[in-house]
């Protein structure tokens, strides 16, 4: 609760800040507008860019939180040309700096980069320029290591400041300062001395991810307690979010996918993101065999074919790119009408970014995830080596198996944004009033979960390992005889519901993954989780949301009206818990598993 109040106060402050700094009557406004057009060839600023630029040009310390792709770089690149002096940019990744610097060079902006690979000659030239009151260099990128480790460079920076030439200090990916963030970099701690060394140079921190805890930490570490905070919303009002239950056979799935793109998205451009290179190739050739103009894009496709696919897609010669996440950087096609996830992404962040490539032109566009439990295991054996990989994956599983919440509220919550679901405007499968949804009821599924744990215990007793697929089979009395448990009844609901119960148990720690390695792959088995004991001794109950009425099966093949922000007139039932089945106690295994 305290957290909610604090975050409400923060929101209030942000709104005030946003109003106060939105002005177009600052002394630099004319220059700013002119450079925006003449140098950057852009027509207008995006939300929060003006506020940030005005604040930093007024020498205020500030932090900007903006989703990836929102346009954070412009917030320092443009001011760097508005005022005299040098803008120092600290960035954690050399590749990011290289990309930016190349783009700047292209625009004719004097910039440079210092890292471990910088030649001695370049270093000398740059360091000489820095201390000249009329130095030419406007933007200098450095790694935090360079700052922390090179005394000589710090000396130069002090001189630069002393001659009044240091305009501001920009810290990109500023959450890296905080150990609470997902990406802590020890060298970022060193940046704490910047404010003391250069009190007159405003600090501008940029990030896409920041919870209140991280932000408070960042302010403390950088010694900028009074820093302004600007936050661009993560909400993309023109994107319609939905989740489909993925058909269990490849054939059914492809039929459904084909129906979608040949009817609802007929003639429209889109992206289909796949989990693996193999998946993307299979989907591409299946679609091509059905006459769809689709191209394939992943890291193993040779560079020439990749750029041909990209080019043909940009020009509209092919409508669909079937790709892995390798298809991402630098995609700027405005009229992407749909992004379909063939399998769930590895995190909410990824989902947001990948689906965010739709609708850059602000026209209504659709973001669809096909969800199935089997894909969770595939993802988890890829991401479990990352520090917060499983935690992130469970975050998106929560999004996928939710049967009632506004998808926007789930996204906003993930990014620590306050959200009122009435703002969704019917633009997600759960808010859309044109859909036939039953009402939501909470049901106690504890006894089924106890059954699941009994099956796992029996398997462990006989030294057998369970995948989720085997677990479901054993639950329905199918599969290997040795894995079945007599005392466990066949569940009185569909296999889809059974899978949803398992996913729920997984993300709430009643179950957990157990990884085993073979020479060629990692296998994800499933075992009781840290909270399993609570369930077995009756000190926990598991309640899950179900739709009371089974949504009627409608077709997905209604063309959508891409030019208007309106709801699609028909859709397939989403991940619906078929609660009606929950109360039906007699079902044979075969009828229960469809
Ligand atoms: P971020 O760092 O927030 O992820 P970038 O600074 O890399 O985002 O910008 C993402 C893209 O948005 C770039 O292609 C950039 O040119 C573009 N962009 C930024 N500001 C604007 C603007 N005001 N109008 C149009 N495009 C913009
Ligand atoms: Mg950036
Ligand atoms: Zn909604």
Automatic annotation (TrEMBL):
Its EC number is 5.6.2.4. GO terms for biological process: double-strand break repair via homologous recombination. Residues 557-570 have a biased composition (Low complexity). Residues 53-228 form the Helicase ATP-binding domain. GO terms for molecular function: 3'-5' DNA helicase activity; ATP binding; DNA binding; four-way junction helicase activity; hydrolase activity; metal ion binding. Residues 253-404 form the Helicase C-terminal domain. Residues 557-594 are annotated as: Disordered. Belongs to the helicase family. RecQ subfamily. This is ATP-dependent DNA helicase. The chain holds residues 38 to 631 of 819 of the full protein.
